[in-house]
Amino acid sequence: MHELTVCDSLFRMIAKERQKRGFNRVCRVKLSIGRFSCLDPDALRYAFEISSRETFLEDARLEIEQPLGEARCTDCGAEVKVESHLSPCPRCGGESLIPTGGDEMKLIELEVL
């Protein structure tokens, strides 16, 4: 489950912010995970819950936004936003889309005490 590895990286990033800013606890973590990423939001929530036990992140609420993926249609040339790799082009109905964005994970917001 590579979601555990992602949580480990996320925790290290938040720990650096904690050291820099001096907060005691995290109440909420908000992420943006593109729909073209290989991350399963439910698996990530589970990994976050398990990994945060007995840490300064314990009981923190994890919120996940999933923006649409971005792609270019090779049939009509349109830059479009779609739900999945298998979605047809919303402009022409073509099925030949090349992903151009939407595979990233971003830390959007931290609520801390």
Give the overall silhouette.
elongated
Average pLDDT rating? 96
Helix residue percentage: 25-40%
N-to-C CA distance: 31 Å
Total of helices: 2
What percent of residues are in strands? Answer: 25-35%
Described by strand count, sense and barrel closure, the largest sheet is: 3 strands, mixed
**What structural class should be given to the helix and strand makeup?**
alpha+beta
- Helix and strand run: HEHEEEEE
Low-confidence stretches: none
Question: How many β-strand stretches?
Answer: 6
Return Rg in Å: 17 Å
Strand order of the largest sheet: 2-1-6
Commentary on this structure:
The protein has 113 residues and is α+β, with helices and mostly antiparallel strands. Helix 1 crosses helix 2. The two termini are 31 Å apart. It has helices at 2-21, 41-51; strands at residues 26-33, 61-65, 69-73, 79-82, 97-101, 105-112. The chain has two helices and six strands; from the N terminus they run H-E-H-E-E-E-E-E. The strands form two sheets. A three-stranded mixed sheet has the order 2-1-6, with helices on one face. A three-stranded antiparallel sheet has the order 4-3-5, with no helix packed on it. 27% of the residues lie in helices and 31% in strands. It is elongated and about 55 Å long.
